[in-house]
Amino acid sequence: MALFLGYDPGGKAKNGVAAISLESDVPEVVATATVRDASEALLWLAAYSGNAQAVGIDTLLAWSPKGGRACDDALRRRYGGNSVVAQNSLYSAMTLNGAIVARRLGLPVYESHPKLLLQLEAGDAIRTLYRETFAKAGTDHAADAIVAAWCAAMGHTRKWAVELYSDIDDDIELVVPGARYPWFETIG
Questions:
Q1: pLDDT tens, 127-177?
Q2: For residue 114, what are the CA distances in angstroms to 43, 50, 119, 125?
Q3: Residue 188 domain-assigned?
Q4: What is the per-residue pLDDT across 15-28, written as a single tens digit (0 to 9) for each?
Q5: Residues 57 and 148: beta-carbon distance below 8 Å
Q6: How many other C-beta atoms lie within 10 A of the C-beta of residue 92?
Q7: How many domains does the chain divide into?
Q8: Structural domain harbouring 60
């Protein structure tokens, strides 16, 4: 059974964390919480990191000097909607807290986009756990962290082989060396 972690960075008392186990591609929630800040998220995640294979984070782990990322543009073209926001219009808690945790945790790290994934058929495998966690917590922070952990699992096990950072031509700077952005289908 493989363990994967997830983090949904946010503002004060809006940082979701999760640990899921995966056996034969069936995810099971180990634990979730919503914590005060990135410091508490690091402590919570560190308690599981010794046995974890990777962490998924709902944040930008690569930035573009052009003000927008080609991978985000491609996602918007392919799926429409407004859940994929340009990097320059994001609030700092999401981007800064996510980068801090990604850099300090020391695990393989994967970018995720829970809100978009849950709108798509590819999100079916994790949607029930998301809804159950959302219902228990009353907010989406820990639930988004579960989806982030799922994305890390799919990328780390190479079930999702598309790599949005490198499969789409862009001039991006990895915030965390080795960070990846797995996706379930080619969107170029």
A1: 999 999 999 888 899 999 999 999 999 999 999 999 999 988 888 999 999
A2: 23, 25, 9, 12
A3: no
A4: 999 999 998 778 99
A5: yes
A6: 8
A7: 1
A8: 2-183
Record the tokens describing residue 170, joined without a space. Answer: 């862009």
DSSP tally for the chain: helices H, then strands E = 6, 9
Write the DSSP string, 93-141: HHHHHHHHHHHHH-S-EEE--HHHHTTSGGGHHHHHHHHHHHHHHSSSH
Residue 173 maps to a domain: yes
3 state DSSP class of 62: strand
Instruction: Kindly state the tokens that stand for 42.
Output: 């690091």
Report phi then psi at 133, rounded to 5.
-65, -40
55 Cβ neighbours under 8 A, 6+ residues apart = 4, 5, 6, 7, 45, 49, 101, 102, 105, 107, 108, 109, 110, 148, 149, 152
